[in-house]
Design brief:
Layout: H1 194-219, E1 222-224, E2 229-230, E3 233-235, H2 239-255, E4 261-268, E5 274-281, H3 287-302, E6 308-310, E7 318-326, E8 329-337, E9 341-348, H4 352-366, E10 367-369
Antiparallel strand pairs: 1-10, 2-3, 3-4, 4-5, 5-9, 6-7, 7-8, 8-9
Amino acid sequence: MLPADEQPAAPPAPRWSGSAPVPPPPPRKRAWGESAEPTPVPPSPAEPPEHRTPVDPWAGADTGGWDLPPAELPPLPPTRSYPAAPPARSHPVPPAPPVRSPAPPPPPRSAPPPVAYPVSPPPVAYPVSPPPVAYPAPPPVSRAPVPVRPTPAPPPPPPPPRQRRAKTAPAGPPPGFQAPKGYVPVAVRKRRRWPWVLLLTLLCCCGCPAYYGTPMVTQYPASAALPAEVADLRLRDDSRSKETARQLEAEVRKAHWLAEDTFAGVYGTSGGKRVTVFGGTGFRFTPESDAQDEITRLTGQYSLGEAQEVDTGVRGRHGRCAVGRVDGDDVVVCTSVDHGSIATAVFTRLSVDDSAALLGTLREQIVTPKQG
């Protein structure tokens, strides 16, 4: 309590200002990235060591017991005496030369009297070894020179073993991988190429010769003979037909001089149709070009037009047909050639398709492969 005269004056009454009291400010919101913990006050800087008061670390410690007497060491072991020297040998020892004492230098006039120096002891005489004994040199031994064999060269080192490359496993899916909806994993089969290479080699080595060689084997050699009747055709036996057949056979022999056998004949029907057929047997390497050459050979004789290719239905057999004219009548000339024979026919009153079909029938009856 203060005395009455020292009591503090009462605060003056607030003056009415006509305004409401101002509330305290709201707490500040934290900025983005600001920590909710209050920022610590930075520590005060340490005082430099040179400004500190020096302190005696041994203050108050009893240091009087440090002056200790030295510890007594154990006595050393007695020193061993050296072994006695061996006795001297019994050989004579030459006398030692007399030792002369050096003459004192003359004293200088104004110098003090000379000082007598101590005389060095005489040298110790050591025993002398006897002179070496001279032995007679051994007689020289004659030896035949030994032939030096050449050293064989070392064999070359074996080549290092070939290391196989380690097969790396296929990379799997990454951890946590999820396949999309509806995906079904399918195992990938490793492709082997050697079976396809082997199959291709067999096809090239065996397939090609078999493909091109089979028609040659089945069509050559062949024989030819004219039957008396083929379908509705009959072989004519009159003198005019025989003369025509001989002439055609001679032309075939002249055109195909490598033919093994030739044939020719004239067939006819009761309706007035006439078919003249001729050809020969023998090996032919290119039947397609031979068929075209045959049509070309007969173009001038029968006034043939453009040749048409005919499908014979037999692999290795090729046919050609062309329309011509003889003595004012239309004719169709067809030829069929394979690797073993050639057959050509001249048809009257028949179309090109009918002539080609009839030539195939005549050929089957006239030419016969010997393998069949």
